[in-house]
Design a protein that fits this description.
This protein is α+β, with helices and mostly antiparallel strands. The chain has one helix and four strands. This is DUF2188 domain-containing protein.
């Protein structure tokens, strides 16, 4: 049984990762933005994007009127 290999880095708030030597992906927590054949291409893409900060989730007010 083989164990999956994960290579993961961060650039400008984005995750740049590769699983089992597959394509390099640039992602946020909820979205995959692009895939690339090389780490250098993925890092260049992530560097060209504007800085990413996750937005805080709004809590709805549950007051009964």
């Amino acid at each position: 049984m083989s164990i999956p290999m994960l290579n993961k880095m961060h650039m400008n708030g984005y995750d740049v990762l590769s699983v089992n030597n597959g394509p390099w992906r640039v992602c946020t927590e909820g979205d995959r933005l692009a895939s690339f054949a090389s780490r250098e291409e993925a890092m260049a893409y992530a560097a060209a994007l504007p800085g990413y900060k996750p937005r805080p989730r709004r809590v709805q007010n549950q007051n009964a009127s």
